[in-house]
Design a protein that fits this description.
Helices cover 37% and strands 20% of the residues.
């Protein structure tokens, strides 16, 4: 039986309209059915190392850290600092929290004295937008919002072409301007979502905190965004299954 492909393709590749359409579906925040409980443990692995691990709910997902260190106390302190950094940065970039810089920027279309970390992430996003020729685009928020509205209240209504055309006119990171610590949108209705970059950036920052606290050997898994450093308990590079 020949199966039809519901995703429209052009010359074997997904066209921009289809990509943004399905980006809207993915941006609804669908999660797996399993619920992972928070766990914490510290195990003396050998005469030299402790394995200290913990899982917490943060960034809208579950973040697990595994640290290897000769001092359990130092490892636990470093892990606490790393989770603090995750919470701090999440408090700057969470678009669902009206108090964050990203939410204020989306609401006003202009924001002065933007936190340096937010400026850095948005600036990187604009660079990736140019490198990818528009494939990576943080300005897809209007598309995501449209799908979220149409799929709310247990409804499953695909947006029509008129609705899609309206929001697609608001998409394009070339409509975002950065001047120092001031960011503005060049067109009313433009909005950004850092969902595709912020988590990885925050994980990298958490890894740096661990390294700064002399915990070289560690693994961080934030819902699939993984960062490793050093070696595992077998003194070999960490293995990540895909």
């Amino acid at each position: 039986m020949k199966m039809s492909n519901p995703i429209p393709l052009t010359n074997g590749t997904m066209n921009r309209r289809a990509f943004l359409k399905y980006s809207g579906l993915l941006g609804l925040g669908l999660t797996s059915a399993g619920i992972l409980p928070a766990t914490a443990e510290a195990i003396k692995f050998n005469n030299d190392d402790y394995k200290v691990s913990e899982t917490k709910s943060t960034m809208g997902t579950y973040v697990s850290m595994t640290l290897l260190h000769s001092s359990k106390d130092k490892a636990e302190e470093a892990m606490g600092r790393a989770y603090e950094e995750i919470d701090r940065l999440t408090g700057l970039m969470n678009r669902f929290d009206h108090a964050t810089a990203v939410a204020q920027l989306n609401n006003e279309g202009y924001l002065d004295e933007v936190p340096p970390e937010v400026v850095q992430v948005i600036a990187r996003s604009l660079e990736y937008y140019r490198i990818s020729q528009g494939t990576f685009d943080i300005s897809v928020k209007p598309v995501v919002d449209l799908f979220k509205k149409n799929f709310s209240d247990n409804k499953s209504i695909m947006p029509n072409n008129r609705e899609l055309d309206r929001v697609l006119n608001l998409v394009g990171s070339d409509k975002i301007e950065i001047n120092g610590r001031t960011i503005r949108f060049k067109k009313p209705g433009v909005g950004i979502t850092l969902d595709g970059i912020a988590k990885g950036y925050i994980v990298d920052r958490a890894s740096k905190v661990l390294a700064d606290h002399q915990v070289k050997n560690h693994l961080i898994n934030a819902g699939g965004d993984i960062r490793t450093s050093g070696a595992n308990l077998d003194k070999k590079p960490w293995t990540v299954a895909i």
